[in-house]
């Protein structure tokens, strides 16, 4: 067997890690993971869930679910933070500069996260699952940030 043939591409590697990070979610409705990467090095990770030290939604219940709030609406009615928000906060807390980095996310960013990613200096978003938020897409496009959908064969960088 040729060395390196079975290695995942960088995109596959980082998205697989984002999937794994998502398993730590405390959200009852959706599991999302994010990995911030620069120069093929992991700078920060985040998953969606309540702030550190607070009771998880499994204990308190989900207000959004109880009130039948549709996905993408009334974000302020959630006890949790989004995966992208937690990744940005983790980087800030530990003094890690993420300007110029890319972020791998299991779900396309909402408008709140899009604005945070823009101001954090993220230059590229790679996501797997769509999230219907036209304003988020508009702001990302206007900012010049690159955004692309992850596919298993998105890049042919297996040997690099």
Write the layout of secondary structure elements.
Layout: H1 10-22, E1 33-38, E2 41-47, H2 57-60, H3 63-66, H4 83-93, E3 102-107, H5 111-120, E4 124-129, H6 134-143, E5 146-149
Parallel strand pairs: 3-4, 4-5
Antiparallel strand pairs: 1-2, 1-3
Question: Could you explain how this protein is built, in words?
Answer:
With 160 residues, the chain is of the alpha/beta class. It is 32% helix and 18% strand. The protein contains 6 helices and 5 strands, in the order αββαααβαβαβ. Strands 2-1-3-4-5 form a 5-stranded mixed sheet. Helix 5 runs parallel beside helix 6. It starts with 9 loop residues before the first helix and ends in an 11-residue tail after the last strand.
Briefly say what this structure is.
With 160 residues, the chain is α/β, with parallel strands linked by helices. Helix content is 32%, strand content 18%. It is built from six helices and five strands.
End-to-end gap: 17 Å
Overall geometry: globular
Unreliable spans are none
Helix content: 25-40%
β-strand percent reads 15-25%
Beta strands, count: 5
The helix tally amounts to 6
Mean pLDDT, to the nearest integer, reads 90
**Secondary-structure content class:** alpha/beta
Strand order of the largest sheet: 2-1-3-4-5
Largest sheet: 5 strands, mixed
Radius of gyration, in Å, reads 16 Å
* H and E string: HEEHHHEHEHE
């Amino acid at each position: 067997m040729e060395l390196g043939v079975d290695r995942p591409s960088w995109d596959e590697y980082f998205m697989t890690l984002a999937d794994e990070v998502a398993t730590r979610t405390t959200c009852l409705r959706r599991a999302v993971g994010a990995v911030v990467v620069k120069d093929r090095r992991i700078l920060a990770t985040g998953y969606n869930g309540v702030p550190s030290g607070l009771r998880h939604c499994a204990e308190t219940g989900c207000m959004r679910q109880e009130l039948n709030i549709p996905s993408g609406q009334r974000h302020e009615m959630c006890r949790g933070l989004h995966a992208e928000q937690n990744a940005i906060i983790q980087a800030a807390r530990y003094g890690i500069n993420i300007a110029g980095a890319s972020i791998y996310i299991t779900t396309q960013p909402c408008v709140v996260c899009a604005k945070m990613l823009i101001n954090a200096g993220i230059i590229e978003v790679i996501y797997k699952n769509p999230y219907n938020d036209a304003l988020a897409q508009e702001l990302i496009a206007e900012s010049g940030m690159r955004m692309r959908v992850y596919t298993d064969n998105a890049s042919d960088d297996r040997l690099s």
